[in-house]
Design brief:
The protein is mostly helical. The protein is about 60% helix and about 0% strand. The chain has a domain of about 80 residues. Helix 2 packs across helix 5 and helix 4 packs across helix 5. The chain is globular. The termini are far apart. GO terms for molecular function: electron transfer activity; heme binding. InterPro entries: Cyt_c-like_dom_sf. This is Cytochrome c domain-containing protein.
């Protein structure tokens, strides 16, 4: 009995420590974070987002830059991918007010196109 108890007490730390990473594993990265990490981060360090002459000054200009660079790199992202990467960058670096406010829905597809500067101009 004493030997069994000592054996269980000896195993306890390894059981707890072995389960700790599983119980407290990080949430899976968002699609935007995954796309940015695999397609953009090789060239873009965090410095590009903090430079004095950055081109993104609000949500729309940030989204325009994401769209522009995915076109330059011929990534063929969907509008949803562009929105997800924009959201990731905004949450990580910029903290701009998204269309519809913080709690509002971020639009994709035709609704996002309608929000682009000059979209309503004739």
């Amino acid at each position: 009995m004493k030997a069994t108890r000592q054996a269980l007490l000896g195993l306890w730390p390894s059981l707890v420590l072995g389960l700790w990473p599983q119980a407290h594993a990080e949430q899976p990265a968002s699609r935007g974070a995954m796309l940015y990490a695999t397609q953009c981060a090789a060239c873009h360090t965090t410095q590009v987002h903090w430079r004095a002459r950055r081109l993104a000054t609000d949500w729309q200009s940030l989204q325009a830059q994401v769209r522009r660079w995915q076109d330059v790199a011929a990534l063929r992202w969907t509008e949803e991918d562009v929105v997800e990467v924009t959201r990731h960058l905004n949450d990580t670096f910029y903290n701009f007010e998204p269309p519809g406010g913080r709690l509002g829905a971020i639009r994709t597809g035709a609704e996002a196109a309608a929000l682009r500067p000059g979209a309503g101009a004739s």
